[in-house]
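Suppose you are handed only these lines of text.
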Amino acid sequence: MAKTIQIKDKKFSLSIPEHEIQKAVNQVAHQITVDYTGKTPLFIVVLNGAFMFAADLMKAINFPCEISFVKFSSYRGTTSSGMLNETAGLNESVEGRDVIIVEDIVDTGITIEGVINSLKAQGTKSIAVAAFLQKPEALQREVTVDYVALKIPNNFIVGYGLDYDGYGRNLKDIYTVVNE
Ligand code: 5GP
Ligand code: MG
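From them, the structure of the protein bound to guanosine-5'-monophosphate can be written out as follows.
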């Protein structure tokens, strides 16, 4: 039986062990290396959820690049513009840069669409998205997710940077909520 944990009021069971995560992240790093060697991209990590994915991804990338971090607060559900409010970020200009957005998970696609629009408006040369996870069944926006480590079913997960009500980000495996 899969290992089960409790976070606050919910039970979660182990669904993606660390070794599978590491293998998938290394594959993404390899693909990015094939596509970007010779360019000097700027990786923009979307906090908080992507911090662990970004750390492992960047350790597996061995060509010259820059890394920066942004934090957005979304107005999800209250606006149809897809624009997000950048609450912390970017000291450097993205104008003319090949940008790779590093995101934890693409669910409906609303968040990543907003991040893409916000960066495009600042004059990027190119934008690619590298997501640790994607829930393809939940997608509601026409966004291209260029690199995906793992595709998962439409269930709530925690671990490897992703939280449930603030907890669980430190787990090195992915756990899926158990519906009781
Ligand atoms: P979207 O805007 O694509 O619907 O959602 C993206 C954001 O929702 C992610 O960056 C993440 O913060 C959150 N999210 C979506 N699905 C999950 C999930 O299964 N678990 C957790 N912890 N967060 C999720
Ligand atoms: Mg996120």
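What can we learn from it? The radius of gyration is 16 Å. The pocket of guanosine-5'-monophosphate (ligand 1) is lined by residues 49, 104-112, 156-158, 162-163 (CB under 6 Å).
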